[in-house]
Design a protein that fits this description.
Blueprint (H helix, E strand, L loop, with lengths): L12 H10 L4 E5 L5 E5 H17 L7 E5 L4 H12 L3 E4 L6 H11 L1 E6 L4 H7 L8 E4 L4 H7 L15 E7 L7 E6 H11 L12 E4 L11 H8 L2 E5 L4 H10 L4 E4 L1 H14 L8 E5 L5 H9 L3 E7 L6 E3 L12 H9 L9 E5 L16 E6 L21 E9 L5 E6 L4 E3 L2 E3 L1 H8 L5 E11 L3 E10 L7 H9 L10 E4 L13 H7 L9
Helix pairs in contact: 1-2, 1-8, 2-3, 7-8, 9-10, 11-12
Bound molecules: adenosine monophosphate (AMP).
Adenosine monophosphate binds next to strand 13, strand 17 and strand 18.
EC number: 6.2.1.44
Enzyme class: ligase
Family: Belongs to the ATP-dependent AMP-binding enzyme family.
């Protein structure tokens, strides 16, 4: 016997229908790369997405075809998310910061049929066109070309229907080794993920919310914001350029209450505010994720009255995994302890399950004791099962997915990330967290960026060294930095050497590339080795 309730397919086109019907006049503002601005509404976004669906059908796009974008955050990109899924296609957001070989690989692997792109990325198109073998149509967003393309359509059509398990979106995640891997989201997983994002501890949206997402639409599904924001009917303010002065001005003028970005975004905002005396008086909710938020960042935002949601997730988890939800005793805790909690990666929302297993042997599930660190595994309805076109599942028989992160889970379920499995440093049989060393180091006033890597040592196997980029105009010696670290980490964790460099290598998604850094220091010899 089945339950007797309605068969309402969990397809993401319902989300835009809802936004247009219930929040139709709520604005979507875009500040374009050329400095101009435009305004539309959720009703306008839906109308344009329907017109794009008609235009795509005229190009011969079929259900299941991949429609790619190479674009920053703006209203036409948002239209394309819904237009692509509306035709029954799969939206493939490409990260323009990837290297050419990766760009070639992912568009061909995805078998993209159509590519919509910003004029700013024309050089990438010109370079890559001969290497992209499946793209039949290139459509530029700028100079009226997108409007011309959909301009002949009237929007009098319906969305493609189908199974809620149909794919709707494809995002590639570029590991530090091997080819990027595709994560193929379903309508159902995306719908459930959008609803989860509406929890106060995650996006904290209500009818008054005005969100400027700095997280790009091409990274990790933009944390689900284009879906979740529509479900909540919030006002979006997009900026097609990520310049701190532009963002600050926009946030103040449009009275932005919510923003989301990786820690480096907040860092550049702080630098701008310090230099100009600007502030963000209307901001009250900041989502920080993608890499660990340093303590001073959380503290500064909290002191300014901003609620910080320090979130952990991955492209493979849609990406919401955890967020810094308040604990039951939050209101009784002193400020310092509240910051301690926010500095960790928080707890799961309903739907996500986490566990840590031993790093040394296969399978042993570790206690949630706040001490024992292990390989972090995750499962849930919006967690990957199998990479796109892979011939076997990425999960075990019980659906656990190995995140590649190393973590401790506290008795109350709080997740504390300590490293990546490939980056932990093993010294004398014990693990040293490179991330904790880095987080401690960036608290030093002279340190702009720091990365810890393990160097071969004949006695200890590996010992850490710390690679540091100094802030302009501020000096410090290696010894001063070691003395500072000694106040924050165990003595045997102290790096054997501190090396100053002009730059630290980054991946296409802006994370420190430990692999490239290790390559740079391949022949490095420790003084006592
Ligand atoms: P991506 O799929 O590119 O978003 O990368 C996911 C990875 O980013 C995770 O596996 C973590 O290693 C890292 N990450 C994401 N959020 C956090 C966070 N709040 N703190 C530390 N690392 C994070």
């Amino acid at each position: 016997m089945l339950g007797a309730m309605q068969d309402f397919d969990l397809r993401v086109t319902h989300i835009i229908d809802h936004a247009a019907r219930e929040h139709g006049t709520r604005e979507i503002v875009t500040r374009w790369a050329d400095g101009s601005e435009s305004r539309t509404t959720w009703a306008g976004i839906r109308h344009d997405a329907l017109r794009m669906t008609q235009a795509l059908r005229k190009l011969g796009v079929q259900v299941g075809d991949r429609i790619a974008t190479l674009a920053m955050n703006h209203s036409r990109h948002l239209v394309s998310w819904y237009g692509a899924v509306g035709v029954g296609g799969v939206l493939h957001t490409i990260n323009p910061r990837l290297f050419d070989d990766q760009l070639e690989y992912i568009a061909n692997h995805a078998e993209d049929q159509v590519l919509l792109y910003d004029k700013a990325f024309q050089p990438i198109i010109d370079r890559m066109k001969p290497r992209w073998t499946t793209i039949r149509h290139y459509i530029c967003y700028d100079d009226g070309q997108f409007e011309d393309w959909i301009g002949g359509e009237d929007g009098q059509t319906t969305w493609a229907t189908g199974d809620e398990r149909d794919p709707c979106m494809l995002c590639y995640t570029s590991g530090t080794t091997g080819n990027p891997k595709g994560v193929l989201y379903q309508h159902r997983s995306t719908f459930l993920h959008a609803i989860t994002g509406l929890q106060p501890a995650i996006f904290d949206f209500d009818a008054r919310s005005v969100m400027l997402p700095v997280v790009p639409m091409f990274h990790a599904a933009s944390w689900g914001l284009p879906w979740g924001g529509a479900a909540a009917g919030i006002k979006f303010v997009f900026s097609a350029v990520n310049d701190a002065a532009v963002l600050t001005e926009l946030m103040n003028r449009e009275r932005v209450t919510h923003s989301a970005g990786v820690p480096t975004v907040w860092l550049s905002m702080f630098q701008h505010m310090d230099a100009t005396g600007a502030s963000l008086p209307t901001l009250r909710h900041a989502i920080i994720g993608g890499s660990a938020a340093p303590r001073f960042m959380i503290e500064r935002l909290m002191k300014a009255g901003v609620n910080v949601a320090h979130a952990w997730g991955m492209t493979e988890t849609s990406p919401i995994g955890t967020t810094g939800a308040k604990t039951h005793d939050w209101d009784d805790l002193p400020f310092e302890q509240q910051v301690d909690i926010k500095q960790m990666q928080g707890r799961v929302p309903f739907g996500v399950e986490l566990r840590c297993v031993s790093l040394d042997g296969p399978g042993e599930v570790l206690p949630r004791d706040g001490k024992t660190s292990g390989a972090l595994q995750v499962r849930g309805p919006w967690v990957i099962k199998r990479y796109f076109k892979a011939d076997k599942d990425a999960t075990d028989a019980e659906q656990w997915f190995d995140t590649g992160d190393v973590a401790v889970i506290h008795p109350d379920g709080t997740l504390q990330l300590t490293d990546r499995t490939k980056d932990v440093i093993k010294s004398g049989g014990e693990w040293i967290s490179s991330v904790e060393l880095e987080n401690a180091a960036v608290g030093h006033p002279a340190v702009a960026e720091a990365a810890a890597i393990g160097i071969y040592h004949p006695k200890w196997d590996e010992r850490p060294i710390l690679v540091v980029v100094k802030k302009a105009g501020v000096d410090a010696t290696a010894e001063e930095i070691r003395n500072y670290l000694a106040q924050h980490v165990a003595k045997w964790w102290l790096p054997d050497a501190v090396e100053f460099v002009d730059d630290i290598p980054h991946t296409g998604t802006g994370k420190i590339s430990k692999k490239d850094l290790r390559d740079r220091f391949r022949d490095y010899k420790l003084a006592d080795a």
